[in-house]
Design a protein that fits this description.
The structure is a single chain. The chain is α+β, with helices and mostly antiparallel strands. Helices cover 38% and strands 28% of the residues. A hairpin with a 5-residue loop joins β5 and β6 (63-67). The longest helix is centred in the last third of the chain and has 29 residues, at 113-141.
């Protein structure tokens, strides 16, 4: 899943945003380069600056999201769980991305609780809105009579 980082940073002080941005390093990727594969250790969070990156979920059947706007963040598994990426991220054109080690971001947020609270509150709000949009999309696709079953 991806998010617009300006939405998340909106609740933080300018100093905190500047400090977080300083933690990121920049990478240039070619078309076809993998950023990460589903199942890889989720050690980094990424922001797309320029280019096109696809996020593909699933193996037998898949869902693919296209990131093509500067400022889109991806690799949320690194922020929300201590495990592996749930999708494969691949560059579809030459791309410039920024990445931050999850440990460095966690250390910064641990030292700045006001920034952490604002960051995760905005992140949760963004994810909650995505969930509502997904539910509404499912309901609008339902054509049958009665109440839809989700089980």
């Amino acid at each position: 899943m991806f998010i617009i980082m300006e939405d998340v940073f909106a609740g933080m002080s300018k100093e905190s945003v500047k400090a977080i941005r300083a933690l990121f390093t920049e990478e240039q990727k070619r078309a076809g380069d993998l950023v990460y594969k589903s199942g890889d250790s989720a050690d980094y969070f990424y922001i797309l600056d320029k280019g096109h990156v696809t996020l593909s979920y699933g193996q037998l059947a898949s869902i693919t999201y296209v990131l093509n706007q500067g400022g889109e963040g991806f690799g949320l598994s690194s922020l929300l769980r201590d495990s592996a990426y749930s999708a494969t991220a691949q560059c579809k054109s030459p791309s410039r991305i920024r990445k931050v080690e999850k440990d460095k971001l966690e250390e910064f947020l641990a030292r700045h609780p006001d920034a952490a609270r604002a960051f995760f509150k905005r992140l949760a709000g963004t994810l909650f809105q995505r969930m509502i949009d997904s539910h509404n999309s499912l309901l609008s696709a339902y054509q049958g009579p009665g109440v839809p079953s989700y089980g």
